[in-house]
Amino acid sequence: ERAGWVASGSCRVESVADHTFGALMLATIYLPDAGEIDKSVVLRMLMAHDLAESIVGDAGHDGSAQLQEQVRTYRMLAASGSYQGAESLAQLYSDFVAFADQSSPEARVAKDFDRLDGLVQLHMYRQRGVYAKDEEWLEALNVAIQTDIGRSVRDLVNSYFKDRDILGSWVDSFRQWSDSERSQSRGTDLD
C-alpha cells in the first residue's frame, strides 16, 4: 500500500502495483511515440522507480529509512546485473538513479507522470469523500508538475474530474429532488 494514502486514513488504498500501472498507463497514452522525449526511457524509469518499493514498501514523503533500503535493494540488483543473462538489472539501477537525480528530461517527465498518477488517485478519493486534506495535496501536486507535457496532462486530468464533480453534483441534486418529489407524492396519496 502507498504510505501517503494509508497515513491519510483513506479506505481501500492504492497499492504500489496499482500506482506503477497507473503511471505507466498515463505515460503510454499521453507521451508521443516520437519526439524530444524518449518514451521507452520514461517507461523504464517509471518501472525502475517503483520496483524497489514493491520489494521493501513505499517510503512515503518522510520515509528516509525505507528509501535507504530501496537504494540497497537497487545496488544488489545492479550487482546481480554482472551475471550472464541478467545484464538488464544494471540498467534498472541506472534508471533508478537517473529518476532520483532528475538528471535528464526523461527523468523529469517520468517524475511528472509519477505525480500525475497521484493526482488521479487524489481525485478518485475525493469523489468517494474519504480524503480530508485534499485541497492541500491537490495544490501541492498541481504545483509540483514541472514539464510541458506533464502540465498538459495535469490540465486534462483536472478538467475531467472537475466535469465529473459538476455532473456528480447535478446528479446528486436531481436524486434529492426526485426523492423529495416521491415522498411528497406518497404523502398526497395517503390523504
Which terms would index this structure?
191 residues, mainly alpha, 8 helices
Describe this structure in words.
- It contains 8 helices and no strands.
- With about 190 residues, the protein is mainly α.
- The protein starts with a helix and ends with a helix.
Which structural class best describes the helix and strand composition?
mainly alpha
Largest sheet: none
Which residues sit in consecutive blocks of at least 5 with pLDDT less than 50? Answer: none
Tell me the span between the first and last alpha carbons.
Answer: 56 Å
The helix/strand series, from N terminus to C terminus, equals: HHHHHHHH
Mean pLDDT: 77
Q: Globular, elongated, flat, extended or rod-shaped: what is the shape?
A: elongated
For the CA atoms, what is the radius of gyration? 21 Å
Number of helices: 8
Strand segment tally: 0
Q: How much of the residues is beta strand, in percent?
A: under 5%
Helix content: over 70%
What's the helix and strand layout?
Blueprint lengths: L2 H6 L7 H15 L8 H18 L7 H17 L7 H14 L3 H24 L5 H11 L3 H43 L1
Helix pairs in contact: 2-3, 2-6, 3-4, 3-5, 3-6, 4-5, 5-6, 6-7, 6-8
